[in-house]
Each structure stands twice: as C-alpha cells, then as structure tokens.
Amino acid sequence: MSANGIKPSADERVMAAIAHGLVIVVYGLGAVGAVVMWLLQKEKSRYVAFQALQAAVYQLVGLLVQLIGWGCWGCLYGLSFIPMIANAQKYKDAPPPVFLISLGLMVLPLGLMGLWILYGLWGARRAFQGRDFRYMVLGRMLERYLGQEGETND
C-alpha cells in the first residue's frame, strides 16, 4: 500500500520493482535507469516516482561506497608489494604475511557489494508486492526531504 493509502497497480509495482532491481547493473548504470524511471513517472505515479528516486539514490550511494572500499583495498594491496620489491631475494619462495592478509581482505568490499545488491533486490521484491518500501535511513531522509519540498511549494 502506498503512503496515500492507495494500492499501486500491477504496472506501478512492476516499474518500482525494476527500479530497485537495477541494482544488479554495474558501473552506476542501474542508477541511471532508476533516474530515468523517476523522471518518466514523477508526474504520473507517486509510488513509482518515490521508489525509483529512492532506488537511484541508494544505488549512487552504493557506487560511491564501493569506489571508496575498492580504492582503500587497492592501496593496501599495492602497499603489500613493497616488502617483496624491497627484498625480492627474501620473498622469492613465499610472499610476506602482509601480502596474504591484504589479499584476504578482498572479501570485505566483495561482501559489501553482495549485501548491497541483496538489499536492493529485497526492495524490488517488496515493491513488486505493492508494499511501501523504505531503505533504512535513506528512505526516511528522502521522505522528509520531499515532504519539506512539497510544503515550501504550497
């Protein structure tokens, strides 16, 4: 049920679910799709528009978090080569422990990506069911922002 108490139509539920489901598309293109859906639906369906906007912001934030996470991991991984370069003879048979640790830490950004995608797909499922889905923190922030925006325009 949407915020105004009206049950979204089957088409609205599908469009909202697609906006959330675009989280599986890489390099931020899913967010672009969600923005396009928001632009096309903002005058037609409040339910689809809010779900698409929420999905777009969620995916853009996710992209930023991923870039930061992978950047930090890449720096750590790159720095782990320094002992091998500085003392190649010592590490010709086995890499130093810091290298193995940094390699193992790759699971952190990978795991975060997986969880981020799963949560977006959960949003798609809830939207497809016609439920008024809100991402934790982000959904309420957008709701407040849009509510304040509407009050200033009246």
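(the above was protein one; protein two follows)
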Amino acid sequence: MKKIGRSSAAMTVLLSLLAPFVSSGEPLTTAAQSTEEIVQPREAFALIQKNKNNPNFVVLDVRTPDEFGSGHIEGAINIDYNSGGFKTLVSELEKARTYLVYCRTGRRSGGAAKVMKDLGFLSIMRMKGDILAWQSEGLPLVK
C-alpha cells in the first residue's frame, strides 16, 4: 500500500472542496466586480443632494476644462477624458468610492466608465443624456 504525502493529501482535499465550483462553471475568484448603473437626471440630482457631505460619493465631469467652466454640476471634479493623461489621473482616485460620471452627451462618459472598470473601480453611475439632459430638466449648474 502506498502512503500519500502531506502535500498530496492537502491537494486532494483542496480539489474536492473546489470541485462544485469548477463543475458549475462559476468563477473561482472572490474579487469584487465593478458595477455600472445608468440613472436619470432627476435621480442623479436626488443622489447628489442626499450625498452632499459623503466623501465616498464623487461627481466626475469628464468634459474639457472650458466646458466645465461654462457650467457644471455643483461639487463636481473635472478630469478631461480627452487629455492624454486621463487614465493616469483617474487611476489616482479611490477605487472603492461611488462615482457619478457625466460629459456632454454620453460618448466620453461611456469611455471613462470603461477605463474606470478596467482599472478596478467598484461603483460607477452614468447619467442618461448627460449634461444636455440635466439642462433640459432645468436642473442647476454652477459656473
């Protein structure tokens, strides 16, 4: 009769514990997954008001500095998606916070959300219709 070494026995136990996950096709990783949610402008406004003093809720405007200067959502920070350093700048942000990302019409905010997901940001919200929809709803901007 052969003796099974400690490492072989441990491997057998480990494989038997993992078998249900492997056979079910579920991932073995336990890392948190990014989420992206689309919200309506009025819903975004309510979230911003509710989280006014919450450092874990960030409004991120990814338009150019000129666009930002012409009118932006109160409390928003500006990182230009089209700048050559967008990925570097955004990677310095805290990934566990919730970010409401917007641009003018949605193209840049969509690209920004993808970059953020790829970098491991956990909670990303985008506003349907972006700043144009916000303005058409008569919601406030600051200059």
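Reviewer note on protein two: The radius of gyration is 22 Å.
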